[in-house]
Chromosome partitioning ATPase, Mrp family, contains Fe-S cluster (Hyphomicrobium facile), 541 residues
Amino acid sequence: MSQETALPARRGMGLGFPGARSAIVKRAKAVVVLPVITALLAAAIVALIPDRYTASTLIQTDPQQRPASKSANVPARADTLASEAERREIEKQMDFMRSAQIIDRVIAELQLSDDPELNKRSLWSYLTGFLTRPAPGEALRQAINDRLSISRVRSTFLVTVLVTTRNAEKSARIANAIANQYLAQQRSPIAQDRTPATKSGELTASERMFASLIDKYGLSSPLAGPRIVAAAGAPNRAAGPRRVRIVAITAGSTLLMALLLALWLERESLRQTRKVEQTLACPHMISIPAVTAHSDPKANARGARMIVAEPQCVYAEAVRKVCRELGQRKSDEASRVILVASALPDEGSESFASNIAHYFAVSAQETLLVDCDFRGKSLTRELTPRNSSGLLDQIAARAPIEDVILRDNLTGLHFLPASGPTPIPLAVATAIRSLEFSRSIAGLKSRFPIIVLSAPPLVPISDARVLAELADEIVFLTAWHRTPRSLAKKALTLLEANQKKVVGAVLTDVAEDQSVGVMSFAAIFDEIRRAARMTSMPRAA
C-alpha cells in the first residue's frame, strides 16, 4: 500500500485539501483515464441504439361527473369529493385507452401484426417464454403498451397520449389511432342514448336545447364531451436516446467514483501508516518499491546503485526523501554512523544502505559504506566481486583497515568490503565483538563524516544488535506485506536500549510507482487489492 511522503506520518485520519490534492495527483492516471474510457464505451454503446421518436395526441375527456358551478353554498368537502370522483373517472378513461379493446382495434386498423419492430421479442420475453406461453396477440399488445404513455394534464380533463417508436410517422399514426378508437368507443353510447328520448317525445326544455346544439355543431363541439384537442404529427427530432447526456453522465459519475476511490485509498494509506507506527513504535518514513534480486551480478549491482543508474525512478526518489529527512536530523557531532538493518533476509536493507550511501557521496560528502554482513556479503559481491580482502581479514590479521577501503571514482563513495574469498580462522561473532573492531569503527569516524553500516538481519543473527551499539542512528526496513508483523516488532525489541536510536521504519516490497509520484495502473490496482484485503482484516493495532 502506498504511503504519503518521507515526512513523519500524520496522526489524524482527515486528509484536508493538501492531502486530498496529493491523493488525486498520485492516482491521476486512474482519475483521468477511467472517465475517458467509460465515456468512449458509453458513446460506442449508445451509437448502436436506434433513434426513438415520440408523437403526442392531446385528448379532452368527459368524466360525465362534472360538478355544478361552484358557489358559496357548496361545502368544501362536497367540492373535494367531486374532484376525487373526477380523478377516478379520468383514470378509468386512461386505463380504457390502454385496454385490449382499444389496442386490438389499433392493431387491426394499422395492420401492425406484421410490423418488425413491434413483433421483435425481447431477451426477457425469450427467457420467460420457457415458463409461460403468451396468449395469441398478447406479445404484440404488450409491445404497444410498452411504447405507450398516457398522463393527465394537471387537474384538467385533458389527457396526453404519447407513443414512442423507431419511426416518426408510425408513432404519430399509432397515437392518433388510439385517440380515434377511444373517441369512437366513447361517442357511440351518446348517440345511442339520444335516440329513445327523441322518439318518445318526452324531452325536457334543457334536453331539447342540448340536442339542438349537438345537431347544429356536431359531436366535435366542446359541448359534446370527449374530443381531440391536438392531433399527433410526425416529430422532426428524435426523443432518444440522448447520447450526449448519457455520455456526460457516464463520464461524470465515473470521475466522481474515481475521485472518491482516490480519497478512500489515501485514507487507507494513512490508516496503514498509523498502524505501522502503532505496531513498530517508531515513525514511518516511507514505502519503497522492491529491488528484485537477480542471478546476474550486474543486475544486482545496478540495484545497489539505483540512485545513480536510474535517478528518476521511484526507488531513487524514495531514497532521496529518506536522506533528506536524515539530513534534517543531523546532530552537532562531526561524524555520524547510520545503521541500516532489517528483520529478516531479503528485505532490501543491503540495496537501501548502498543507495543512501551513494546519495550522500554524490552530494559532495565524504561517505563510507561498510558491508557488515560478514556471512551473506551481498554488497561485497555486487560492488567489488574481485576483491581479495576486507574488514574481517584486517581484523583477523590486526592490520589497518584503511588499506582495504576502495573508492568509486564516479561517485566518490568509499566502500569497505566484508571480507575476501579466503576463509578466515576467526569466528564472525568473536570478531564483531572484539575491541579491535570497535576501535576500527571509531577510527573511521575521525575520517568520514558519514558512515553507513549495512547490517545482517536482526532476528536470525545477533551481529546487528552488536553493531547497534556503534551506531548513532538506525533505519529499520521490513517487507510489511510479506514479513509477519510479530517478527518485525520482535526485531526492534531485540535492539533493547538501542531501540531509541531508530529514526524510522521504511516499508519495502511495495509495487513500483506506488509510494511516490504518479502511480501506474498496475500499482493502483495492487493498492486497491491490498486496501480491500486490509479492510477485511481486523483493525486491531
